[in-house]
Each structure stands twice: as C-alpha cells, then as structure tokens.
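job 3f2a | input accepted
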Amino acid sequence: MHLFSYIFAFILISISIIGYGYIFNKYTLKIDKINIGYLGLIGIFFLTFLAYLFNIFIPLSDKFNFFLHLLGVIFFSIFFIKNFSPNKNHFKFFGLFLIICLFFIFTAKTHDDFEYYHFAYIHLLNFENTQIGIGQFNNGFRVPSSIFYFSSLFYLPYLKHDIIHLGPIFFTLFINVIFLIKIIDYKDNKNLRFLVYLSLIGLIISNIFFYRLGEHGTDRSAQILVILLFIEVLYIVNLNKENYKFILPKIIIIITLIASLKAFYLIYIFVLIPILIYQKEKLLFIKNIFILKSTYFSIAFFFIVLLTYFVNSGCFIYPLGLSCFNVLWAIPINEVNDWNNYYQLWSKAGATPNFKVSNPEEYIKYFNWLPNWINIYFFNKVSDYLLSILFISIIFFFYFFSKYKIKVKKVKYRLIYIFLVFLFIEWFFYHPALRYGGFHLIALITFIPISLYLQNYDFDKKIFFKKLLIIFSIILLISVGRNINRVIKETDIYNYNVFANPSYNRNFQNFKIYGQIKEVINCKSNCSNNPIKSKKIFGRNIFYR
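job 3f2a | predicted structure (545 res):
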C-alpha cells in the first residue's frame, strides 16, 4: 500500500507541476510555441517562487501542500487537457520518462549532505515560517538552495517526509522531455542538426552519469539545466529576431533556476552578453528583454532568493564577504572569510571530513594545490569522467560520420564557446570539483565542436532516425539497468526492502537541528552555555550570538 501511495504521489505531483506551468504561462508569461517539458520547468519555477513567498507568512505544512497540489491537478484536468494541443508525441515522451523516472526514485541512500542540512532545512520550512538568523545553527542554512523550497512542497499527509528528497527527479523528468522533443524536432533540419547531437549528450549526462538520485544534491539539477541553457543560447543566436519572443523568455527562466539552485552559478547571467554581441540591433534586443514578463518575474525571484540569504546569514551571497552587513544576526566576517577559503580548500583537494592540510592559506595560493589535486582528485574522479567523455566522443564520431558531405548554414558559436572556455578557466582556478560545474563544462567544451563537425555530414532520413532510435534505446537500457543494479546492491548493503519502503532511511539525526532551534527559542534561563541566543521582534524569532 505504501509503495502504491509513493508512486501515486510522484505521478500526481508531476501532473500538478504541469498544471501550474500551464496556468502561469497562459495568463502571465504568455510564451508561444511551448512544449510540455517547458511547462514542467515553468511549473517548477512558479511553485518554488510560491514556496518562498508563502513561507514568509506561514509554514509549508502537509495540509497546505496537499491543497496546493490538488489545485494544480485541477488546473491540469480542467484547463490544460481542454486547451493545450501539442504534438501527440510530446505526451508520449512525457509518459515514457515518467515511467523511466520511477526507477530513479527508489532509494535507500540520499546525498551525503542530506542529513547534514538538506532535510533539516526542509523540515524547518514545513513547521515554521521564515526565521531570522538560522544560519547560526548550520553552515548549509546560510545559502539554501531553491530546491529545498521546491522539495518542501512534497511534505504531504500520510506520506509525511517520505518523498521530500525527490525534488531533483522532477528537473530530470522535464529536462529529459525537452531534450527528446528537440531531437525529434531538429532531426530533419540540416542547419540545426548539431543541436540534436548536443541534446543526445544532455540525455547521456542526465540519465547515465547522473542516474543516482542520491548523488544529485543541490548541484546536478543545475548542471543539466546549464546544458539545456547553452543549447537554447546556440539556438537563439542562429535564429531570426522574430523568433526571439519564444526562446528568450525560456533562457531567462533557465538562468533564474540555475542561479537559485547554487549561488555561484549567478555567473551564468553573463551568457546574455555574447548573445547581445551577436545582435545587429543591440538596443532593440535589450528593449525586448525588458518587455518580457518573464524578466520581471525572474527579477522578483532573484530578489526573494537574495533576501532569504540575507535573512539567514546577514550576507546577500554567502560566503562573499563584500555582500555581508553588520546586522544583529550576521555571521562574523572572519568566519565568512574562513568558510570562503575552506570551499576553495575542499575543491582543491586540501580538505575532507577527516583530513586538512597544515597550511590552508598557502596551499590555495597560485598553483600550490595542483600536484596534490592531481594525485588525490584528478586520478580518482576527473580522469574517469574524462575517459568516459572521450569514449562517447569516439562512438559519436564513428557512428554519425558519413561519406556524404553537405553544405549547411554557417553556425554562430565562437563567442559562446569563448564564454564557455572563460567559465572553465574560472572553475579550474577557484573551485575545480566536478560537482561545482566540471561535469557540464567539460561535456560542452568537448561536444560542441564534435556536434558542429558532424553536422557537415548527412544520412538518409530513415537511416538517421534509426541511428537516433538505437542511441536512445541504449541510453534508456543503461539508465534503467544501472538503477535496478543500484537498488539490488543497496538492498543487500542496507538490509532494505524497496517494496515495503521505497523511500529512504530516517533517523534522529534528521531532526537534530530543529530540536536545537526549539531549545534556543524555549530557553528562558540558564542559557549562558549556549552561544546562540534568540529574541522576538514583530512576532519573528531572531537568532544571534
């Protein structure tokens, strides 16, 4: 019975997301030529924004979430089904990936940071409205990912916390649908066939490399979105300006979601600069950006995200010291700077939960870290990924290479590629860990040239479709097979029965921080031993030292 409820809730929430995406787009954004995959992303955008907004005033309780999703299902049933008329294949693609994602959601192991702060933060959202200074209790609370707010909406009656870890899978679901639609839509367009190859790479990354839901955390959903972002960017710079109205709003929505998932991805907003440079009428392009309703909703979204960071830590972008202010609940500036250095130290293989180099500040300077990073991190993780990318590149080259060379329209891509290289250099110098952007940067830098080269060679349409079908089938078989194998292994390791409990194992550690918060709030005397204090101002708890 629990298994049925688990799957049923996953399907209904997927439908609810589409319902909200349709309503929000139809009556507010009004983006033309929208498909069901993008309606899903817009639904995630809107629901996450609502979670931030409502939590200012009320906890995101199980009853609130139930009625919220019930309304989304009603929107889907009454408005979407009656009025939305996409290609029938799009519904089939959605149904296909919905089934495939069922293999992702059975888990016994969550991300390593889930018990550390993911669960605790989501749990706080479910039981309290916005509290000021909660960054005092946990470093992870200081820059919360938007996926926590999105996931907090999955706390439901009966299921309670059982599905709150599923946030990333909804990103995977709808982005996969978008990739597949692009493959089908562009396969017969010789001038845009390079986008077919890049979309295939997107499917490979999200389904084969990122097949473990427990490894997604707060960053892998963002990395899949970045791949989609650059596909859309390459698309828009090779389109006529009259088509911008249905591509540019999508790009703005994607950038907003990426930056909200991980604060340091704010840098991707600068991808608008190479797009602008390509425009003949630059002032008109800028004007078009500020005409779009998606722009203003994205600005509002960014504002509430940055405000949340400030309310939690006293910094608008933690741990950037320049963004911090000396308010009552602020994290001490020396601690902010220490954590900024620690993030660099960790990404440069200078620290682990059980290890730290003796001279951290000297270690992260210049290239002092490089030999150790190569020995500890490169040969353990990066090399495996690079070999996998190399293998796929060779397969792609020989599989899609043909003796029939054709003339295609020249593709505008150089400025976009230079921007990618700049991002790679920034990544390598400051935070060279795959989870901090390495996956998508290496993949895009490798496959954009390969995709552009293969576009110059043609196949018979039927042969090309068969090749695509074979590749797609292999992707699905590997993805499903790896997840089945994962479940079998985890069943043995964790003494775990997926049919009895398809969720994850909870323990007291999940609720520990919330208990500490309540202890500080309820402490009336003999609190001198606790460095964290609280006071109430205008009905809000403020935590400070």
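job 3f2a | The chain has a mean pLDDT of 90.
job 3f2a | closed
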